[in-house]
Amino acid sequence: MNINVLQARPLSMAYASKLPLFTAKSLASIRACSLPKVNISSHRGVRYRHQVFRPQALIEVDTPLEPGEHGCALSLVAEEVDIGSHQVRVVRPKDEDAVLDMYINSGHEEADPYWATLWPSSICLASLLLAETSLVAGKEVCDLGSGLGLAGVGAALAGAQQVTMCDREPLALKCIQRTAGLNGLNYLTKDMEGMQASRESFVSTAVLDWDDEEPDVGKFDVVLACDVLYQAAAVAPLAQIVPKLLARDGMLILADPPERTPENRRNFVKMVNGILDKSFSHRIVYNGQEHELCVMHFGFGNALEKC
Predict the structure, then answer these.
(1) Residue 167: beta bridge partners?
(2) What is the pLDDT of residue 245?
(3) How far apart (Å, rounded) are the C-alpha atoms in residues 115 and 230?
(4) Residue 189 lies in a domain
(5) Structural domain tally of the chain?
(6) In this structure, how many other beta carbons lie within 10 angstroms of the beta carbon of residue 24?
(7) Model's pTM, two decimal places?
(8) What number of other Cβ atoms are within 10 A of residue 199's Cβ?
(9) Is-contact 151 142, C-beta < 8 A?
(10) What is the CATH number of the domain that holds 253?
(11) Smallest Cα–Cα separation from 155: which of 142, 173, 171?
(12) CA torsion sign, 201 to 49 to 260 to 102?
């Protein structure tokens, strides 16, 4: 796989982070819109973690995604993002609008093109895992609704024993497979908390729709979820599938933009079969814009016996 360095540019669909998510059909009617900047509430009395992330460069990947059921190939780039002491390369479509066009031209107008964007929630969660490696070190981890998989990559770099990336879009999983290769995730030698450790870190992918009643991807110590509460219709299926994915005493770590769909988040907390252990705000600056994320830890113990 050959790569060439390109100059970094803002994401062409960045405006979408200020909106509830749409399908390819509805996005087509608003893609030329320009929206005002959203002011982020300060929420006095809450201690924030604040970090700055900048894309260092875009690296052109010569080998595109092969045509699938949607009938066209997608050119790819690898976006370099510094997260703590790690420089992570994330493979994604070169032009997010091309993904939208692909779905429309192939008659898949109800498809969700948002997997092709690197979202601040995934950057936030990846940075958290690399700062607090004990959350995932040595554990079986699932990145649910993984999109481009940055949160799962963060878990692997933080020492997870195995990371399974789950998304309903096979093209997203193909990007993740290339991302894993670029970041050397087949085998890792890490210095964890001053102790030298050499081990294999396995990153795998699985097609999974959270509407599936009986997911067949195994059980995990930790489930990660970023930006998954954007549609009200997804709240109940997510609340039902998470306990099915978790091993006994497992944990869900969820990152979500607080201003976008707060009602969905409140409903999820009520519905999910777990205990909210901790909730805090995490602020990052990415591509010159400030993003506030709500991070929640849910613990699952005896409740899992009912699943």
Answers:
(1) 207
(2) 93
(3) 13
(4) yes
(5) 1
(6) 21
(7) 0.74
(8) 13
(9) no
(10) 3.40.50.150
(11) 142
(12) negative
